[in-house]
Structures are given as C-alpha cells and as structure tokens.
Amino acid sequence: MEQIRLTIDGKEVVTTSDRTILEAAREAGVRVPSLCYEERMDPYGACRICLVEVEGARGLLPACYTKVTDGMVVRTVTEDLLRIRRTILELILSDHPKDCMTCESAGDCELQDLAYEYGVKDTPYKGEEHHYDTLADNPLIERDYDKCILCGRCIRICREVQGVGVYDFVNRGFEAVPGIPYNKPMTESPCEFCGQCVSTCPTGAIVSIPSKGKGRSWQVEKVRTTCPYCGCGCQLDLHVREGRIIEVSSAVMTGPGEGNLCVKGRYGYEFVHHPDRLSQPLVRKGGELVPATWEEALGAVANRIRKAMDDKGPDSVAFLASARCTNEENYLLQKLARAVVGTNNVDHCARLCHASTVAGLAMSFGSGAMTNSIEDLEKADCILVTGSNTTEGHPIIGLRIKRAVMKNGCRLIVAEPRHIRLCYYAQQWIRQRPGTDVALFNAMMNVILSEGLADEDFIRERTEGFEEFRKTVEQYTPERAAEICGVDAEEIRRAARTYATAERAAIVFAMGITQHTTGVDNVLTLANLAMLTGNLGKEGAGVNPLRGQNNVQGACDMGALPNVFPGYQAVSDAGVREKFERAWGADYLSGNPGLTVTEIMDAAFKGDVDVLYIMGENPMISDPDISHLKEALEKVDFLVVQDIFLTETAAFADVVLPSASFAEKEGTFTNTDRRVQRVRKAVEPPGEAREDSWIIAQVASRLGSDMGEVSPAKVMEEIASLTPSYGGISYARLEREGELRWPCPDAEHPGTPILHVGKFTRGKGLFKPVEYRPPAEEPDDEYPLVLTTGRLLTHYHTGTMTRRVEALNQLVPSNRVWISPADAERYGVADGEEVGLQSRRGAIRLEAKVTRKVAEGVVFVPFHFGESPANALTNPALDPVAKIPELKVAAVRLVTGEAMQGLRYVTAGEAPVAAR
Amino acid sequence: MNNEACNCKQRFADVNDLRPLQQILDRYREEKGALIPLLQDAQEAYGYLDEKIMRALARGAGYQLSQVYGVATFYTQFRLEPIGEHLIRVCHGTACHVAGAELISEEISNILGIKDGQTTEDMRFTLESVMCVGACSLSPIMIVDEDTHGKLKPANVRKVLKRYMADGEGEEAEA
After folding, report:
1. Residue of A162, A168, A172 for testing the chain B interface, max B β-carbons within 10 Å
2. Which residues of B touch A171 (CB under 8 A)?
3. CB of A150 within 8 Å of any CB in chain B?
4. Using CA atoms, how far apart are residues A576 and A593, in angstroms rounded to an integer?
5. E strand or H helix at A3
6. In this structure, is residue A344 part of a structural domain?
7. Residues β-bridged to residue A889
8. pLDDT the model gives residue A577
9. Between A and B, how many CB-CB pairs are < 8 A?
10. Which residue in A169, A197, A425 has the most chain B C-beta atoms within 10 A of its own C-beta, making it the best mutation to test that interface?
11. B66/A171 touch (CB, cutoff 8 Å), yes or no
12. In this structure, are A560 and A485 located in the same domain?
C-alpha cells in the first residue's frame, strides 16, 4: 500500500492509498459530517452531506467515496459547503417528523446532531409528507418509515455484513422505503433478529422494542463487558438506568465482533432481572428447599464436605466448574478442590463439547485450542466448515465466513449432514451420514496424496509420523469412503482439490466433529488434513475448533479439568505439583488424575460420590441419557448447586447457593480464539446473591483454608504467576489494551494471534493414522432413524437464560423434531403434529417440523428444551480417550397416533416462564 | 365470466408451472447482472410477476428475494398483479399529452371504472399509462394488446373498446 500525503483543512495528513478522504480526515481528527456512511459497510455516497472541496477537482466530491491521492488539498468547511449541507438537511427535514421529544433515538440520532450543529430548525420546503403506520410485527424490531432518511444503511448491513438481505428499497421516488418483499412481517422474512439494522439506523426509524420507552442515551450509563453466550467473545455495552439493564449495544469496530451482535447478544439480557433469579440460599429441610441464611447454608456445605473427606477420603467429593463463570472463579473452584479438599475430581462441560479437541490437538500439535484468530478467517482462500452450524452456534464467526465468501471470493466447503445456512454461501456442500467423518477426510487426503497436492516441504520439515499415516490413508479411496459416507466419490475429489490447491485454507469445526465416540479420531483426521497441506502457522489457515460457551476455553485454561492444573500443567508431574504446593501453601496435592464429568455421574450412580458441588452447570439438560443422570443425582448423598436460577439440576440439590450473573461481577472470559477480555459489573445481584468467588472463598475458609483476598484482579495476578501462557496478563494491561491472546508469557509480550508459527508447541506436528469406526449405535429395524442434536440461533445451551427472555421465547417457544419430507410421508406425519420420539434410553413428546434441511433417515432435535429434552434420547457411549459422549448420533424411532399413549415421556422440568 | 370463450388466457403460462421460468433461467445462466432481462422475460411468459415466480427466480438466479422485489417495484414496466385479458396502454408522451391523452385516459376510466394501473373486477381490461411509444404522428394513441389505435378522440374510445368486449356481452354490461 502506497503512502499518501495530503492536506485537509490546512493540516498535513499522512495516510495510505486505501483510505477515503473521510477516513483520512477522521484519523486526523477532522470531523466530516456523514449520514449514509458507517464503518462496517462499503461506502455508498447517497446522502451527499459529506461533500468536500478538493482543489482542482470538478465539482464537490463525496468524502466517503473518494480515495485519497498524493498531494490532494481538501477543504471540509467552506461557505459553499455549509450552505449545501444546510440545504440537504432542510430537504431531509421536509419529510421528517419533528418529534424529537418523544423519539426513542433522541440523543443518539445522527440527523438530530447535524440539525443541531448546522442550526437547521425547520424547512422552507413545504410539501407532501409521509404518514406511514408504525410496523411492530414481531417481538423485537419496530419500523417507522416516517423517520427514514433513505440512507440504505439497514439494507446494506443486512446484505453486506449479515449476508441475509431482508430489506431492499421498495418502490421508487417519493414512495421508496427500505421494505420487506410483499410487506411481510419480519417473522415471515429471512430475518435473524440480530438487530444490526437497529444498530446502524442513524435516526429513530428502526428501534428495538424491548428497550422502547425505558430510557435515552443521556439517562444511561454504559458498561463495557463481554457477552455471556457463545465463545465469540463479542464486546457488549450494557445500558444501565436505575440499576437495570435496559438495552445492549456493541461499539462499532470494537472486539472480535467489530460491533456486530446476534439476537442473543443484543436481546438476551432480560434474564438478569427475571423474578425467578435466586436471591437467597436454600437448604433442603423435610424434603423441601427452604430459604436459609448464608451462615447456615455455607456451614452445611462445609460440614458435609469435611465429613466426606473424613469418612471416605477427598476423592469422595467432586466438583463441576463452569464454562459460564469467569476465569478467576474457575481458578478458585479448582483450587478449592485441589488445595483445600485434596481431590482432582474437578471437571466441567468442556468434557461434553471439546474434550476430544483438547485431547486430539494436544496429540497432533501440542496445544488444544483454535490455532488462528476469528478475523483471520477473512484472509482464507478456502474454508472447510464441518460439524459447525456456525451462523447459529457462533453467529459472529459466521459473519466472518460469509464475508470471506461474499467479499473476498473465498471458496467455502460445508461438510455437514444437515442443510445449514452456510450452505447458501458454499461452493460445495457434502452431506455425509452422521458419524462418518473419518472416512470422508481420510478419502480427501487420499486424493491429495494421489494427485500430488500435498505440501511436501511442510511435511518434511515440520512433521513426523508421515509414512505410517500414508499407509492408512491409502486404504481410503474416494469410492470406499463414498460408500461409507453416502456421498458421491467425485464430490470428495472436488472438495480435496479445492481445499488443497488454496493458498490459505482454514478448517472450522465444532460439536458435529467432537461429540462422537470417535471424537478424538475426527479431530486427529482434521489435524492431519491441515498438516498434509501445510495449512498451519500462517494467516488465513489453521485448525479452528469453535468453543461453545463464553468461557469454556478459560475454564479449561484454569485447570477445571481432572488431569491438569491451570495452563495444562499435568497433575501427574511431581515438579508441577511442588510448584503449586508451594504457591498454595498446601501440604499435599494429589497426583492422581480425577474423574471426568461422565465418570463422576457414573460414580454417583454407583453411590461412590458423597458430595457433588456443581457451579453454574445444568447437566439435567446438557448431559446424555438424563434418565440415568437423574438417578445418579438422586444417589448423591449431598448435592450443592451454585447458580443464578433454580435449574432442573438445582431442583435435586440439598443446598442451593445463589450467585451473581455476568452483569453483576468483575472478571475475565477467554473466548474461542484464546482472547482474554474483561467482564465488568453493571448492576447489583438480586437480594443476597453473591459472586461465585466470594462463595468459594467462604466454603474454603469454613474448611480451614484462607484464600486471602479474592478480588478478580488479585486472583488474576496469582493465575499469571502460576500459568505460563497467562504470565503477561493483568487487569492493568486488559484495561489499557482491551484484549490479550494467550500465550502471553510476560508483561511485554503482545499476545499470540496465530499458534504454531515456525514450530509446533510439541516441536513437530504428529501425523496420527486414524481408521474409520462406525458410531456406537446405528439404526436398525427397531430404531430405524438417526438422531442428531444441536443448537438453535435463538436459544442458548440449557435455555436457563434465553428461555427467560420474553422476546426470544416468543420467537421460538418450544421444541420441534426436524423430519425430512420423505420420512414424514412414510410415517404419515404432518408439519406441526405432535409426535413421540423414542430411543433405547427414553422417549420425548414434541412437535414435528417437516423440512428438507435434514436427510431422509435422519432427525434433528435441539437440546435447549427441558420439557422435551433431546438428551433423554442420546447415547452416553464414550470416546475411549476423551470420555466425550456421542451426543450427535443415536438410533431412534418415531411414534405417532395411538401408540403415543403407551410411551412414558421423560422431562427434565417445566418450561421456564419468560417475564420482564 | 366465460373463460373458455377467450383465447387470451392461454397467452400466458400458469404461475404454478415453473418450466417456462426454468428455460428463462437457463438462458441467462452464464450472464451476470441479468436481473432485468430475467424479470422481463418472466413477465412475458407469465403475464405478471407472481410471488411464486419471484421466489423461484430469486432462488434460481442466486439473488435474495428482496433484491428481486426491489428492482421489480422500482420499474413501472413490471407488474406484480395479474393483468386482464386485454392490456390497454395509453401513450402519455409529449405529443400525445399535447393532443389530449389525459382526456383519453379519463374516458377509459369512466367506461371501465378503473384507474391507471388497475384491472377491471371481471379481469377483462387492464389500463396502463406509458411514455412515448414512438408514433407521435398518430397522437393521441392507445395500444390495446398488439393493436394500435391513433388519432383518438374521447368520443371514439367506447367504440374501440367495444371490439374487445368479447361477444358483445361486455358492451351490455357497460351500457
């Protein structure tokens, strides 16, 4: 890029040739007015308010659209320009209501600001004015075309950034509006309810319904924090008025989302103030959970832990940490388990999502995290997405993939049993049978090898184990894999060529790869594929597991795993133990790896767990085979649940400890691309609810161990001192720099956006040969359909939060099983009909959704819904290495009509009631 | 209304039959940015752009429905509603305007009870104002289906229309 020198309003400005006058001016602190311009979109040049004078140019030039050139002399304020700007504003105001007094956007309106600045009070152009009806045809987004200035920002953000295209200009001339085809309600359009149009509308023409009338920009305090939903780590501004969150926004060009949010991030905040929030400790008395004091509840917890330790030893106590809680809280909980109680029985739901990734990538590369960064995806020439419904599970990463395709011509391959939204953007969609991934990717590598497309330099210099791996892959011809996967051999060849010939190719995957009895094998296969083509340690490439929860990466980093201390330092390593013993002042730390989540539940079932302490997890909905799980929880002598709601799991507890939500505490989350970001307190917790860190320290002190000051900043200091990859992370730096990506070993280190550059964490990348194994349970005559499970865009995980948000619950109020039209016909099921779905483990009752998005023989059920829990059906069979259950493949049968009467339906609880 | 008596209905394909649209899509398969010709050809095939056709066209040509709808509502040449058996186009170019095109349109409106852009309830006639049709020497002009009627006077309009009121029944209805 060329360096450019120009003059703006007499000021010497140095910039680069890719900049427009407007960008160069803003960088130099010169504010050029704009209305149709916004940084997230391409310049449009519609409103003409940014016209500037350029010496030697014919006429005035739009600053938003004109690229800078060397020696350019620009004037942004002249008599002519001021007159023109005033006229433009007068023309806009000739058909714009002057109702700023009641307008939702007053104080946050770009038109109001410009009218104020240019002193335009009214218009001399009196003519016809529009009087449209306000459109509120959905629970979230309201449109008032009277206030529309036709800047096209809503249209463009929906098309360019969101890739959806709900709106376009409809009609022409005076009748033109940014409309929806056929004036359909938004709920009948492809709208994803991300509210991006709301976020970019410069006036009050598009506003959010839930925050209407609750407060305007000068009445709120904005608190910057990190989104509590998926692992994207978007930066939120919570708008707080009188102790309540009334709206959420994201500052443009800030954080991994660059100011873009999804429906959950923008609208999923109401749960914070829900009346169901736990506001005091509960203790079970006479079979009932009744309110108690903190003293009583904490005393009971400590006594029972002490008793279990004395009776059966520390390993009769087990802890579940939380991917929803902060790094500091997870660190403290594992410290409580290890240093105070003396057990390594601490794990969390990463076991159910990415345990196979952590194990697999650690074997291949030496480090089990996303190798590249979120923004890096835009630099890829090819992206292979497999087992990730990215636009719903990680919507903001979905935007990056869509943009890579739409703007940069990246070739997208989707390998996925279901038709997902990304398929619309994909050059190729491979619909493999669930659970046949190893065969598919082995065959792709077979093609790459036989056609000479492998990166031989990379293999020679940076990897080991290649020869043995080659022998295995040679067995997987495309024809053989085609048979196993149920796809065309030519499709496999085509995908292999596209991936291997790209200069930079990235792999993106999530639970569709990991939640199998072959989870580790699947991950190893993808790692092999990336190594074979040299797609590691460089921009726009890599193996990118998308972590499902806001802080699942952090909870793993903090050692909320049974075999490692913080920073993946093995408990079996005596040197490491000694370091932690010294730091924690503990006499003895156990070197025996503890039990995993799934093993803890099995041990509980056998009566071997005396005390189970669960912080912020809801296994009754998230874990497989909940009938078995329910029995296990009932058999636990003493169950402690620390949560923000009385979850389906908490209903079994002996003591319930009310904790603070993300909006009520300080801390840090580590997102999916290893980015550590701050969580900040915006409001007070309800009633007597307390931060998890306080609760953990109280339990520790009642067990005779003083954790000292547990303020998050202080805890982070301790984390940094013991965790090499977090060594340079501190609150002072996060405050200053906003985000830091581990490994960040010291205070000078800038953080690491891309792993394995030049050298793998383990030295050389290891090719592990992997053979295809079928899923643990395959369809048969009795259970002829394959069940696969997953997420919806609108809801999150066990629904504890999102199902308590009124608008989200209105959009998707209940569960449905997706059935292909062919199967619907075979079983005589109509769309919307109630059906029963039964596996060897249980049955649920729910509505049928007939859709081409699933293949014949496959049904899909989202797992968010306690009243019809997908996990009543799923198979608890485990991956032998990572102990992750096979949540993605189970054999089921569809039950209709009278036969439905004969089934016993499993529920995890009632559907929560959303309320404001 | 007696449908069988009229051949005009067969001029257009049934909107439930997507085969003609498929042929049109195939024709423009290799061309980028051919949305307007696509819409024109589709309208020619089906008489108007039904929602079903618009959706199938968007899907088939790789557009978002909103883009297709935006273009179709921008240009007056595109019709989203079915037209009557006979399409009356009244020229409002400069020459026709000077020669009294307004009065011609008014007279048609009086006779048929429809305004510009509307279709009679019996789906017989659709009235459209168009810009110069390039036959200024004959102004004022109206074109009914493929027939040009020039040097019109308001008093002649009824006589011309009568020819299109099939079997004369329309005439009685209007009289």
Report:
1. A168
2. 73-74
3. no
4. 14
5. strand A3-8
6. yes
7. none
8. 96
9. 36
10. A169
11. no
12. no
**Residue-number span of the structural domain to which A522 is assigned:** 355-545
ipTM of the complex: 0.88
Contact between residue B162 and residue B171 where contact means Cβ atoms under 8 Å apart: yes
**So what's the pLDDT on residue B173?**
40
Minimum CA–CA partner of A177 in chain B: B70
Spell out which chain B residues touch chain A, with contact meaning CB-CB distance below 8 angstroms: 51, 54, 64-70, 73-75
Residue A14's CB is within 10 A of a number of other CB atoms, namely: 11
* Residues A195 and A261 reside in one and the same domain: yes
Question: Does any CB of chain B come closer than 8 Å to the CB of residue A181?
Answer: yes
Total residue length of chain A: 916
With CB atoms and an 8 Å threshold, state whether B69 touches A166. Answer: no
Q: Is residue A110 part of a domain?
A: no
Query: Does residue A182 sit at the B interface (CB-CB below 8 Å)?
Result: yes
pLDDT classification of B122: cutoffs 50, 70, 90 = confident
Phi-psi region of A686 (alpha: psi -120 to 50; beta: other; left: phi over 0): beta
- A687 part of contact set with chain B, CB < 8 Å: no
Domain identity same for A59 and A202: no
Residues of chain A with confidence (pLDDT) below 70:
914-916
Helical H segments across A211-342, by residue range: 263-267, 294-312, 327-335
**A172, B64: Cβ pair inside 8 Å?**
no
B-chain CB neighbours of A167 within 8 Å are 66
Which chain A residue lies closest to B63 (C-alpha atoms)? A165
Residue A680 pLDDT = 97
Q: Smallest CA–CA separation between B122 and chain A, in Å?
A: 24
The domain spanning residue A716 has which CATH number? 3.40.50.740
Cis before A190 (ω within 30): no
* One-letter amino acid of A535: N
Q: Is the pLDDT of residue B166 over 80?
A: no
pLDDT for res B108: 93
A650 and A621 fall within a common domain: yes
∠B67-B68-B70 over CA atoms, to 5°? 65
Read off the pLDDT of residues B43-99 as tens digits, 9 standing for 90 and up.
999 989 999 999 999 999 999 999 999 999 999 889 898 888 888 999 999 999 999
pLDDT at site B6: 43
Tell me the pLDDT tens digit for each residue of A722-764. Answer: 999 999 999 999 999 999 999 999 999 999 999 999 999 999 9
Task: Decide if A911 is inside a domain.
Answer: no
Q: Which CATH architecture has domain B86-174?
A: 3-Layer(aba) Sandwich (3.40)
